[in-house]
Write a sequence for this structure.
């Protein structure tokens, strides 16, 4: 009887500890990280294949980044938030990394492969913003 | 003995269910949401007071959005990711909302208050991108 109770308590402790850690990692995950936003400006005649970008290009680049990559996101531009202004960007892909220098070291040897993949989904030259997550 | 075992199993089930839901809500929280990114382009002579933006402006706007706002983030531009190119944006503030029309309905009546606050932290006219979170 005592052994059963003891085992139950141990299991519950392990479970709640895992739960607490999950909650914490969710809450503080982004602040202080470095973001690398690859932004594709909209203009007449520009094209962007979101399906290829989501299923091929971004997973390839993410694969180069290893454990330095915390997460990545993709957004599809819909409109300008200011009436009568053109769409600013057709798409933005963002890498959240722990270390910018590690990011650069990982991308460097793969730059040619990344650039060779561009024409497969777009004819846009991206703008790249490196930023720090403040909140 | 059987009752204890039964109670332990019930407790473990509840605990693991809570854990599973937490993981799921983390993983799918952003996909499908609408992002409104307020982007402040860098140029010579432009200024941006990040402390005011973080502690006053963004909390004020977030307060107008109510339960439609899932979260908001702030990033501080550090550099262009392309060598020898200028910093694209000094700062970006992003609202993740469930409904764009609700966002617009909430901002509309408060537009004057929001604009009147701009000169307190910047002399930049922002670019605003409305986008859909794909991943």
């Amino acid at each position: 009887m005592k052994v059963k109770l003891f085992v139950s308590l141990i299991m519950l402790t392990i479970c709640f500890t895992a739960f607490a850690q999950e909650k914490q990692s969710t809450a503080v995950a982004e602040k202080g990280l470095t973001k690398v936003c690859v932004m594709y400006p909209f203009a007449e005649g520009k094209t962007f294949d979101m399906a290829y970008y989501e299923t091929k290009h971004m997973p390839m680049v993410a694969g180069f980044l290893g454990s330095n990559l915390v997460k990545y996101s993709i957004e599809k531009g819909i409109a300008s938030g200011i009436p009568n202004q053109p769409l600013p960007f057709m798409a933005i892909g963002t890498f959240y990394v722990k270390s910018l220098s590690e990011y650069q070291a990982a991308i460097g040897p793969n730059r040619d492969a990344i650039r060779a993949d561009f024409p497969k989904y777009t004819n846009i030259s991206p703008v790249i913003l490196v930023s720090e997550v403040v909140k």
